[in-house]
């Protein structure tokens, strides 16, 4: 799934959780994202900033659901996971045997293949410790890191009933 497809499929509450995290923890990323999205729609930033927060979020989600905002959406998702969900990323990397910096940022090469048994264990661990919707979103974003994704991960996302976005 591309980023705009993820935003179309995701529970709006999950997107709200992400946007709240940025507003609380990294306002610069939030402001930059809103400015870039506004510019992509040929709107002035102040037009969006004057809206009540709920309307801002609804507008952001609507805009991120469009194909033309794929790159912005993917960057937002990556930033949220890399800064706001480091523990989960590190657990995934550990379970998959992927070298990382202790915060979930991969330090070596991404694997060429994903071992199904390791993936099953990693998913079990993550779903047991975190919101399954967040886990599902992360696994989809991880799958975007390689052109075409990994067949094993794609099959897991499609076949495991715990891994739903809505």
Write up this protein.
The protein is mostly helical. The protein has 2 domains: 3-69, no CATH class; 86-159, no CATH class. 68% of the residues lie in helices and 0% in strands. It has 10 helices and no strands. Helix 7 runs antiparallel to helix 8 (116-129). The longest helix is centred in the middle third of the chain and has 15 residues, at 70-84. The protein starts with a helix and ends in a 7-residue tail after the last helix. 27% of the residues are buried.
Describe the SSE topology.
Elements (H helix, E strand, L loop, with lengths): L2 H7 L2 H14 L1 H14 L4 H5 L3 H12 L5 H15 L1 H11 L19 H14 L2 H12 L7 H9 L7
In summary, what is this structure?
This protein is mainly α and 166 residues long. The protein contains 10 helices and no strands.
- The helix/strand class is mainly alpha
Proportion of residues in β-strands:
under 5%
Give the radius of gyration: 16 Å
Main sheet specs: none
Query: Uncertain regions: pLDDT < 50 for 5+ in a row?
Result: none
What number of domains? 2
Listing every helix as H and every strand as E from the N terminus to the C terminus, the arrangement reads HHHHHHHHHH
Total beta strand runs: 0
Based on Cα principal axes, name the global outline: elongated
- Oligomer status: single chain
Total number of helices: 10
Give the overall pLDDT as a whole number: 94
Amount of helix = 55-70%
Q: Whole-Å distance between the termini?
A: 14 Å
């Amino acid at each position: 799934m591309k980023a705009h497809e993820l935003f179309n499929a995701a529970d709006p509450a999950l997107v709200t959780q992400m946007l709240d995290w940025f507003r609380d923890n990294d306002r610069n990323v939030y402001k930059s994202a809103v400015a870039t999205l506004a510019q992509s729609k040929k709107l002035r930033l102040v037009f969006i900033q004057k809206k009540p927060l709920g309307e801002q979020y609804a507008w952001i989600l609507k805009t991120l659901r469009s194909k033309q905002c794929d790159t912005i959406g993917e960057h937002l998702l990556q930033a949220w996971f890399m800064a706001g969900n480091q523990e989960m990323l590190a657990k995934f990397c550990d379970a998959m045997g992927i070298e990382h910096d202790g915060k979930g940022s991969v330090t070596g090469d991404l694997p060429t293949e994903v071992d199904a048994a390791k993936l099953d264990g990693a998913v079990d661990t993550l779903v047991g410790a975190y919101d399954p919707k967040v886990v599902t979103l992360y696994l989809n974003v991880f799958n975007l890191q390689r052109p075409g994704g990994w067949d094993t991960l794609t099959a897991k996302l499609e076949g495991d009933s715990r891994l739903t976005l809505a």
